[in-house]
């Protein structure tokens, strides 16, 4: 019994740092809440955290109201932009010094955080309109991988990266050597392991980790040791897996509710933010 107990994952309790200020809350219906939340009223649905070191700011999206906020180190919120879209995942492009946005309604967008200029980068793929982008990641040489989730699920697993199809592809992260993608397949309640070949194609895809519950994994991140961190959308937990898939830690939400996404930040990149 002692050996079994020693193999259990460590449990860590996260603490609340800040929440959306009252002046930005907007309870009501939107295209997002009608189509994806079965008509549930929302005051916000925060997603896509990224930390931009040069600005010392954390950026987050608010999907149903097309908003992107910045948060400074003193937990002051600023509305950066509001537009006719449903922004979800964000990634910082160090080459262009712009924020890339996976927008469910508009496609892949680019935001200048200084001028606040917003423009569309990709609205179609091979002549077809995108299903509805969810998240994205960028390699060191500027290659952008994004999940095109739409309303896919096990009833029609045709969401795409777009280098492969799957049931509701969501958050994704590249391995340190950029030879593998880890992709959250929300409706499969699993994270897939996707080896990348030199020509950009894939082979021998498998399940890296599997979960339970009515939702599934959402955001995915990686730490300095190569552990894979997975935010589960309905369990209020971030699951931390070693590189071989072993569950080594569970980080619990302070409110015990939905965890959508996660990122590293702070001046030393040692602060772990969970949305």
Automatic annotation (TrEMBL):
Domain SMP-30/Gluconolactonase/LRE-like region: residue ranges: 47-274
**Which InterPro entries does its entry note?**
6-blade_b-propeller_TolB-like, SGL, SMP-30, SMP-30/CGR1_Lactonase
Domain of life, source organism: Eukaryota
For this protein, the record's Gene3D superfamilies field holds:
TolB, C-terminal domain
What protein am I looking at? SMP-30/Gluconolactonase/LRE-like region domain-containing protein
Species name: Aspergillus tamarii
């Amino acid at each position: 019994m002692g050996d079994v107990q020693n193999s259990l994952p460590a449990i860590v309790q996260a603490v609340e740092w800040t929440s959306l200020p009252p002046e930005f809350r907007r309870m009501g219906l939107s295209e997002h809440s009608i189509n994806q939340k079965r008509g549930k009223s929302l005051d916000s649905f925060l997603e896509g955290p990224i930390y931009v070191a040069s600005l010392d700011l954390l950026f987050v999206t608010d999907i149903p109201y097309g908003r992107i906020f910045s948060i400074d180190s003193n937990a002051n919120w600023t509305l950066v932009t509001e537009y006719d879209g449903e922004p979800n995942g964000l990634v910082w492009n160090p080459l262009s010094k712009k924020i890339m946005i996976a927008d469910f309604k508009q496609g892949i967008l680019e935001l200048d955080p200084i001028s606040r200029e917003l423009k569309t980068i990709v609205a179609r793929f091979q002549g077809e309109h995108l299903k509805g982008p969810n998240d994205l990641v960028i390699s060191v040489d500027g290659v952008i991988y994004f999940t095109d989730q739409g309303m896919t699920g096990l009833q029609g697993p045709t969401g795409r990266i777009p280098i492969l199809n799957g049931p509701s592809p969501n958050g994704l992260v590249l391995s340190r050597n950029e030879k593998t993608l880890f992709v959250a397949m929300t409706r499969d309640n699993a994270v897939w392991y996707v080896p990348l070949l030199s020509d950009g194609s894939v082979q021998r895809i498998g399940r890296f980790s599997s979960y339970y519950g009515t939702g599934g994994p959402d955001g995915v991140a990686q730490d300095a040791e190569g552990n894979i961190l997975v935010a589960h959308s309905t369990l209020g937990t971030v699951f931390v897996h070693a590189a071989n898939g072993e569950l080594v830690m569970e980080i619990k939400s302070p409110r015990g509710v939905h965890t959508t996404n996660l990122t590293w930040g702070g001046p030393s990149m040692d602060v772990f933010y969970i949305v």
